[in-house]
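hey
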């Protein structure tokens, strides 16, 4: 066999191997999901409504709106992320009365972005005490395909909404849970019966 023929065969084999690796990587990065393809914020809002319809919890008085991805203050408040560099679309669903601790965030990430890493970052950095004098009790976050889903609220309500999303999605990535941290009050704010009063020294 001529050297030129061998060289051609070697090149063909190398190209075939490279293409095979690329295909495997692409397939592995596309998680199975039952969610419909999201092409706009309106599609995310439809998903949120479907989640509510499938939840056993009573969800009333909430409004689902598009998140302005150019407003870093809103991004930080609603998602816990520092910026929207990895996000394509994002919506938030919260009560019209700001003192009720409830928030649902649905996001579509950009191509080649690890959606589960975004879910993890959100769960770790979002402020569960962002409301006036109240805090969400429980937080759940995960992804299904390129969709990130986070909900934080009173424990039973958060669980019901989260389970509804998982039922619709069919398959989800790694799941993240978090409970609100109980902050200790300073001594001057403790009730008298909880304070340790030193004995009188004669």
């Amino acid at each position: 066999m001529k050297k030129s023929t061998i060289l051609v065969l070697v090149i063909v084999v190398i190209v075939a191997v490279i293409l095979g690796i690329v295909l495997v990587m692409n397939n592995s990065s596309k998680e199975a999901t039952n969610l419909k393809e999201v092409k706009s914020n309106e599609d995310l809002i439809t998903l949120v409504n479907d989640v509510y319809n499938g939840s056993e919890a009573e969800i009333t008085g909430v409004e689902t709106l598009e998140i302005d991805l150019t407003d870093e203050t809103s991004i930080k408040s609603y998602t816990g992320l520092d910026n929207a560099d990895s996000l394509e679309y994002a919506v938030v669903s919260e009560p019209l009365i700001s003192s009720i601790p409830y928030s649902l965030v649905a996001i579509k990430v950009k191509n080649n972005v690890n959606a589960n890493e975004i879910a993890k970052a959100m769960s770790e950095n979002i402020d569960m005490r962002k409301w006036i004098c109240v805090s969400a009790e429980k937080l759940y976050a995960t992804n299904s395909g390129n969709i990130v889903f986070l909900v934080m609220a009173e424990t039973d309500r958060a669980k019901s909404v989260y389970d509804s999303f998982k039922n619709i999605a069919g398959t989800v990535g790694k799941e993240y849970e978090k409970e609100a941290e109980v902050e200790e009050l300073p001594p001057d704010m403790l009730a008298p019966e909880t304070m340790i009063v030193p004995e009188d020294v004669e």
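DSSP finds five helices and six strands in the chain. Residues 22-29 have pLDDT under 50 and may be disordered.
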